[in-house]
């Protein structure tokens, strides 16, 4: 059996977070993965705004997305960048802005998730949050008892923001997608081939065989890409190719998803009275 490749981290969504939050995320992940193997993908404007923070990483580890087209396009660009040089790498895709209370527990789960990714099943591994709070943003993950390497097979993902649906699901054991997942090169390609084949073809036609990617080439590629969402467009249709690792008791929060989805959750159920302390805890700070 081939030994697993080096573990890398790709932080996405840097354009939607403050420099301080990105800096904390980099330092946290550096407790598991050396900074030379941490990549940040963002628009040139975002990289400029975060220049002081990104100085902690090698200059080549800041990847420019010329136009914001959503996480699937950004992750695919970073995938092509990394795997053309490191085809056997294992990668953790992590929101650039997140909070953690118990960092040791968090990093242990990240390591276990990465270790479970290059299995014979060729599936990406999601990190799922165990919570009874339906207002925690993130896709609902329904999983089965087919356990391997501490993971369960994903049966279905549901990006619903209907509070009744979410409450019913979490009370019966559904977990909530953290925004973190681990993948090998083959499992990444499998996801895109199934859920977003048009996006994958666009990248292959423009970037395959290119030794360098000019700003003009990337701008031409991204100009005509549709904007897609990670949960709804890539992962939800690809449930058959996913497993889930449980993360609990670490106090983790995906700040990117919270700011994107939480207002919709609150507006979707205006008649529900949410305790003041819950509003203070969940609303963006």
Major sheet size, sense and barrel closure: 5 strands, mixed, barrel
Our count of helices gives 12
Strand order of the largest sheet: 6-9-7-8-10
CATH superfamily: Spore Coat Polysaccharide Biosynthesis Protein SpsA, Chain A
**Overall 3D form:** globular
* Number of separate domains: 1
Contiguous runs where pLDDT drops below 50 for at least 5 residues: 270-285
| CATH class division | Alpha Beta
User: Structural class of the secondary elements?
Assistant: alpha/beta
CATH topology: Spore Coat Polysaccharide Biosynthesis Protein SpsA, Chain A
Strand segment tally: 11
Report the span from N to C terminus. Answer: 47 Å
Q: Judging by the overall fold, what is the CATH architecture?
A: Alpha-Beta Complex
Q: Summarize the amount of helix as a percent range.
A: 40-55%
Strand content: 15-25%
The run of helices and strands is EHEHHEHEEHEEEHEHHHHEEHH
Rg (C-alpha, Å): 18 Å
**pLDDT average, as an integer?**
86
Overview of this protein structure:
- This protein is α/β, with parallel strands linked by helices and 285 residues long.
- It has a single domain (7-282), classed as Spore Coat Polysaccharide Biosynthesis Protein SpsA, Chain A (Alpha-Beta Complex).
- It contains 12 helices and 11 strands.
- It has helices spanning 19-29, 44-49, 51-54, 71-83, 103-116, 163-171, 185-195, 197-207, 215-223, 230-235, 255-268, 276-282; strands spanning 7-12, 38-42, 62-64, 90-95, 98-99, 124-129, 140-143, 151-158, 175-183, 242-247, 253-254.
- The strands form 2 sheets. Strands 6-9-7-8-10 form a 5-stranded mixed beta barrel.
- Helix 1 (19-29) links the parallel strand 1 (7-12) and strand 2.
- Helix 4 (71-83) crosses helix 8 and helix 7 (185-195) crosses helix 8.
- Residues 270-285 have low confidence and may be disordered.
């Amino acid at each position: 059996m081939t030994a697993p490749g080096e573990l890398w981290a790709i932080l996405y969504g840097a354009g939607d977070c403050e420099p301080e939050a990105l800096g904390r995320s980099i330092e946290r992940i550096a407790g598991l993965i050396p900074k030379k193997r941490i990549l940040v993908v963002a628009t040139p404007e975002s990289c400029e705004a975060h220049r002081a923070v990104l100085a902690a990483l090698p200059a080549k580890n800041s990847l420019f997305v010329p136009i914001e087209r959503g996480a699937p396009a950004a992750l695919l660009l970073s995938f092509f960048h990394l795997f053309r040089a490191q085809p056997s790498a294992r990668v953790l895709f992590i929101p650039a802005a997140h909070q953690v209370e118990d960092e040791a527990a968090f990093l242990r789960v990240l390591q276990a998730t990465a270790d479970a990714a290059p299995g014979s099943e060729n599936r990406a591994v999601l990190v799922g949050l165990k919570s009874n709070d339906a207002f925690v943003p993130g896709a609902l993950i329904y999983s089965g008892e087919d356990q391997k390497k501490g993971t369960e097979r994903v049966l279905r993902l549901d990006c619903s923001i209907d509070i009744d649906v979410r409450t019913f699901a979490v009370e019966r054991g559904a977990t909530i997608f953290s925004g973190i997942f681990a993948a090998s090169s083959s499992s990444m390609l499998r996801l895109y081939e199934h859920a977003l084949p048009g996006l994958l073809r666009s990248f292959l036609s423009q970037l395959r065989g290119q030794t360098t990617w000019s700003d003009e080439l990337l701008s031409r590629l991204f100009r005509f890409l549709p904007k897609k969402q990670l949960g709804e467009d890539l992962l939800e249709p690809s449930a058959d190719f996913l497993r889930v690792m449980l993360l609990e008791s670490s106090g983790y929060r995906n700040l990117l998803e919270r700011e994107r989805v939480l207002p919709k959750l609150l507006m979707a159920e205006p008649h529900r009275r949410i305790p003041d302390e819950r509003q203070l805890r969940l609303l963006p700070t």
